[in-house]
Amino acid sequence: MKNVTIESTVVEEPCVGCVDLSVDIISTFSLAAQQNSYPVLKSIRVSYPKHDEKELPSYSSLTIKLDGIDGWLSEEIWQIDQLEPGQSIGINLKELRFPFEKLFGITEQITHELSFSLFSDKQDLLAEQHVKLDILPANFWGRRKATSAFSRVC
């Protein structure tokens, strides 16, 4: 009996009719960043690729939801009136504010996960994205510890 080796290649095709949710945030945040008005959100984009061989439905009354983080961040909601095949929409950003007491009180870096979900008007989940945000202690800026250092020139 002869041994035969069969190789298979898996080719992943783009999802036809899928809506894409793309969220870009800064990777680290701190009390200093908030006090200097650095935004957490850089961009939110919803894309609905057109398909030449398949007619796709339009969507109306879509909702993007950012899940709240207990004690840290309130839930945020964005509305999209209409989304057509071939359309890409940049969403107006909201300022995310963390409680001063929480940012001031942490003594070591912590990581939160921001969870964004895109829902149809029937509350069907169309897309989601989870992004990590590192929160630095109040005495850190850009991953470096801030220290008080005075030098005297005589």
Describe the structure.
It is a single chain. This protein has one domain (about 20-145): Immunoglobulin-like (Sandwich). About 5% of the residues lie in helices and about 40% in strands. It contains 2 helices and 10 strands. The strands form 3 sheets. Strands 2-8-7-4-5 form a 5-stranded mixed beta sheet. It is elongated and about 55 Å long.
In terms of topology, how is this protein built?
Elements: E1 20-25, E2 28-29, H1 31-35, E3 41-48, E4 59-66, E5 76-83, E6 87-90, H2 100-105, E7 110-119, E8 125-135, E9 140-141, E10 144-145
Short description:
The chain is built from 2 helices and 10 strands.
Outline type: elongated
CATH architecture name: Sandwich
Overall number of domains: 1
Structural class: mainly beta
Quaternary arrangement of the chains shown? single chain
Number of strands: 10
Helix content: under 10%
* CATH class membership: Mainly Beta
* CATH homologous superfamily identity: Immunoglobulins
Please work out how many helical segments DSSP would assign: 2
Unreliable segments (pLDDT under 50, ≥5 consecutive)? 8-14, 143-154
Q: What Rg is obtained from the alpha carbons, in whole angstroms? A: 22 Å
Chain-averaged pLDDT: 84
Kindly identify the CATH topology. Answer: Immunoglobulin-like
Major beta sheet summary: 5 strands, mixed
Please indicate the percent range of residues in DSSP E strands (runs of 2 or more): 35-45%
Order of helices and strands: EEHEEEEHEEEE
Give the termini distance in whole angstroms. Answer: 92 Å
Strand order of the largest sheet: 2-8-7-4-5
